[in-house]
Structure formats: C-alpha cells, structure tokens
Write a structure and sequence with these properties.
By secondary structure, the protein is an all-alpha fold. The protein has helices spanning 2-13, 24-48.
Length: 74
C-alpha cells in the first residue's frame, strides 16, 4: 500500500488543479509518510506472516516406527 501511495497518490495530491502547478513540498511530505509506512510495514509483515513449508519425500518406515504416520505409494 505504501508503494502504491508513493507512486499514485503522492503525485495526484501534490498537483494544484486550479493553476496546474506542482507543489514539491507537499509531494515530499507524502513521500516521507509513505517511506515511514514502508519501513514499518516490511518488518511487521515478516514478523507476523506465518509460512509453513511441507517437504514430501519418499520414506519407508521401520517396523519400530509405530508412532509416526506415513503415506506409501502403491
């Protein structure tokens, strides 16, 4: 969302539509806010995103492995 705001919203919010001028100070203020949001959002995303990876490999259980489940191919 921060990158979208930096690329789309900041330039649109910085244009004075009456005169057609571009306000550079407003643009930099929006970019600073987007940068802060991006800098906070990336670490929070990596912390709170739970990804589970399952690796499936061919496995032949020993007879003493009664406590584990396995899928055997026919």
């Amino acid at each position: 969302m921060s990158s979208f705001a930096a690329l789309v919203v900041a330039p649109l919010a910085s244009i004075n539509y009456r005169t057609g001028n571009f306000n550079q100070k407003t643009y930099y203020s929006f970019l600073a806010g987007c940068g802060v949001g991006f800098a906070i959002g990336i670490p929070l995303n990596t912390i709170f995103t739970k990804s589970k990876n399952y690796r499936i490999k061919e496995y032949t259980p020993d007879p003493c492995d009664n406590n584990y489940y396995s899928i055997q191919t026919k």
